[in-house]
Every structure is written in structure tokens, then in C-alpha cells.
Amino acid sequence: MHKTALITGITGQDGSYLAEFLLEKGYEVHGIKRRASLFNTQRIDHIYQDPHEAKPKLKLHYGDLTDSSNLTRILSEVQPDEVYNLGAQSHVAVSFEAPEYTADVDAIGTLRLLEAIRFLGLEKKTRFYQASTSELYGLVQEIPQTETTPFHPRSPYAVAKMYAYWITVNYREAYGMYACNGILFNHESPRRGETFVTRKITRGLCNIAQGLEDRLYMGNIDALRDWGHAKDYVRMQWMMLQQDAPDDFVIATGVQYSVRQFIIWSAEHLGISLNFQGEGVNETAVVAKVTGDKAPGVKPGDVILRIDPQYFRPAEVETLLGSPIKAKEKLGWTPQITTQEMCEEMVAEDLKSAQRHALLKQHGFDLPVSLENG
Ligand code: NDP
Ligand code: GDR
Questions:
Q1: Dihedral sign from CA coordinates of 346, 352, 356, 357
Q2: What is the predicted ipTM?
Q3: CB of residue 326 inside a 6 A radius of ligand 2
Q4: N or C: which end of the chain has fewer CB within 10 A?
């Protein structure tokens, strides 16, 4: 008998990799997508199945985590064996701009799903995965952070996710639901949203290398993060729901780098050596040398990065480093892709896209490059 999974946030980075992974395992996969004024399924178009075909294995439903009746109806129709709650307003900086909406989606949205599962009498059938986050640690109390490190959230996003974390634990304890929290540290990929720092760097530097943009404006480049690859992390989301008993796990690489280091690696993959000059808000990155043919758009002396305080956060999470020991010992999970390999893959993908744009430009088709930042 095949299993059925429901993914909220299927159109996002993790949702797309998880859907691929579950389809390969033979699951029937249902996903909730939001209505948008433009197509928003780019990350899953390659696995989309025409609903007119007999028995498609991937089905999309319109819905929103702010709408209980809609969540209840979809759960009732799908009767899933597994629910992966990946949907969220997931941008930390944006959560300071839209705190109430973030709480509605990320905190109460989780409660709505859990309550709908219970209301429908699915609490003994349906296993539940909650996308918890290293942002819960915020002002860190212990290095590295483990499943028992105390939380100190530092943004409306993290506070909302803290509610979601505990309501998941509560439904497990109160109703015996199989409900797990994956406390995931930052994970990235070529499908990462363009306004998260790694993708902003790889995409921005590739555009600059191809002469499509002049400069990258960044916030706190001394922040330290433990970055893994999304493909490794969605495998772990599934593994967590295949155990005899539900439990919570930290998912991390156990290695930490600065945003600055990620900038240096990304530039190196483009044949650009950088010098950082100045301090604080006056710091800049200047091109020292260009080798190879990947960066015809820059020359030594170009200032390709400046600090812009608009990207500083009202309360910053300066450092995060996770301990994946429990995941390794209990589930046998270890990440397969290093941070450096992931950076190289992201640069390679963004370079292809920048080169396509540059080629069109050369031939008179000057398509706009979105300069929307984050
Ligand atoms: P993305 O931002 O790429 O994807 C978020 C998904 O949630 C998108 O499909 C988005 O839809 C959907 N969504 C947003 N608002 C709503 C809503 N109101 N109702 C229904 N769906 C909504 O995030 P990631 O894939 O990177 O992350 C997945 C989850 O894991 C998130 O919950 C995130 O907070 C959490 N997380 C992520 C980490 C990371 O490093 N990536 C680390 C730890 C936790 P649309 O495409 O229409 O915008
Ligand atoms: P984060 O990811 O806040 O950790 O949340 P993000 O990539 O946005 O920031 C990481 C660090 O980089 C610093 N930074 C900048 N960030 C952005 N976005 N833009 C900039 O210009 C910039 N300059 C420096 C940030 O200040 C921060 O310290 C991500 C999200 O995926 C969450 O949903 C998830 O829960 C956590 O990771 C784990």
C-alpha cells in the first residue's frame, strides 16, 4: 500500500525537494499552494502532473494556513498518513515588518493544522512534522546548540515558531499524536529564495560578474551560521516520521562560517579575488584580481559590495552552530553535501542564468533583472 503525504509550503525550497523525495519513494503527494497573481509553482513545475492524466501522484490544492475551514476540508479529502508543515512566512527580517501576519501563519497556522487533524479523528493515523528552526535559540545560551539548549527567540518569526514548537509537543503529550519537531539550522540550495543571504550573494555576484548589476548591498556580514544543503535536510524530515516513537531532532552540519566567508567563496568560484576595506558601515569589498572568463563584467578596483544599514535587524542572531549528534546516533543521519560544495553549486546555477541574461542583452533583448533585495 502506498502512503499519502500532505505538504504545506510545497512551492517553497524545502517543499519542492521533499515532494521530489516522496514521489521517488512511491508516495501520493498532495500540496497546498497559495493563490497568487503570477505563477508560483516554478520550483515544482518539473514534477507537476497533468490532473487530466489517470491517477496523478502529485496533486495541488489551493489553500492558506490562515484559513481553518480550508485546511480541514483538504485534510478530510486527503486523509494523509503524513503531514509536513513547511508553510510559513519564513523571512526573519520581514517578520519585523509584518509581525502579526507572521504569527498568524507560523504560530496559529500550526495550531489550525493540528486541531483539524484532531477534529477529523485523524490523530492516531496522521503523523505530523513541524518545521522548527535554529532561530529558536536566538541569543545562544550554549555552544553548540542541542535539543536541550534553552530557547531565546530574537524576532517575531522566532517567537511565532516557538509557539509552533510547543503546540506540536503539546498535541503529542495531550492527545498521543505522532508529532515531531525538526529543529533545522539554515539550509540552502539553488532553489533558495532570492532574499536569503546565501542566494542574495550567489545571485548578486553572478549578475555583477556578467555586468548585469553593479553592486551588492549587505547587512551584518560577520553573522555566523551553520549552513547545510536542503536536499540533505528534507531526507531527515522524512526519516523523523518513520521511527517507532515521535521525537524532536536538531538537524545541522556542526560546522559554522561567517557571511563574509560565503561571499569570499562565491567570488572565488567566479575567479574574483576580493579585498575588504574600511570598517563597520563603511566597509566595502573591492575587486583585487580577476582570473578566468566567468567575470567579464568586473575589473580590479571595482567596489562591488557595500554595507547598507537597512539590512541590519532590530535584534540580530549573531551566531548559530548546531550539534547533529542525536540525529546521527538515533537515526543514522549525516549530511552528504558540505557548505563549500553547496556554495559552488549555487554559484554554478546562478551563473548559468546570468550568462543567459547577458547573452540576450548582447543581442538587444534587455530583459530586466529583478533588483529586489532582502
Ligand atoms: P520558503 O520561504 O522557501 O517556503 C515557504 C513556503 O510557505 C512557500 O511554499 C510559501 O508559499 C508558503 N507559505 C507562505 N505563507 C503561507 C500561507 N499563509 N499559507 C500557506 N502557505 C504559505 O521556506 P523554506 O522552504 O526555506 O522553509 C520551509 C520551512 O522550514 C519554513 O517553515 C521555514 O520557516 C522553516 N525553516 C527553514 C529553514 C531554512 O534554512 N530554509 C531552517 C529552519 C526552518 P509561496 O511560494 O506562495 O510564497
Ligand atoms: P536567517 O537567514 O535569518 O538565518 O533565517 P538569512 O539568510 O536571511 O540571514 C542569515 C544571516 O545573514 C545576515 N545578513 C543578511 N541577511 C539577508 N537576508 N540579507 C542581507 O543583506 C544580509 N546581510 C547580512 C543576517 O542578518 C543573518 O544574520 C533563515 C530562514 O530560512 C528562516 O526561515 C530559518 O528558520 C532560519 O534560516 C534557520
A1: positive
A2: 0.99
A3: no
A4: N
One-letter amino acid for residue 264 of the chain: I
Write the CATH number of the domain with boundaries 197-224+258-318+338-363: 3.90.25.10
Closest by Cα among 108, 153, 150 to 135: 153
Pocket of ligand 1 (CB under 6 A): 8-9, 11-15, 32, 34, 36, 40, 64-66, 86-90, 105, 131, 133, 184, 186-187, 193
The amino acid sitting at 28 is E
Q: State in Å: Cα 197 to ligand 2 middle.
A: 5
Express each pLDDT in 282-312 by its tens digit: 999 999 999 999 999 999 999 999 999 999 9
Atom from ligand 1 closest to the CA of residue 184: 43
A 10 A CB-CB count for 72 gives 17
Alpha helix ranges (H) inside 176-229? 197-209
Distance 90 CA to ligand 2 centre (A): 10
Strand partners, 273: 289
Distance 243 CA to ligand 2 centre (A): 31
List the chain domain ranges.
4-184, 197-224+258-318+338-363
Residue 249 has pLDDT above 80, yes or no: yes
Catalytic annotation on 133? yes
The per-residue pLDDT for range 355-373, each reduced to its tens digit, is 999 999 999 987 777 776 6
Query: Of the listed 135, 188, 213, 345, which one is catalytic?
Result: 135
Half-sphere exposure of 330 (CA within 13 A, CB side): 19
Q: Is 8 a catalytic residue?
A: no
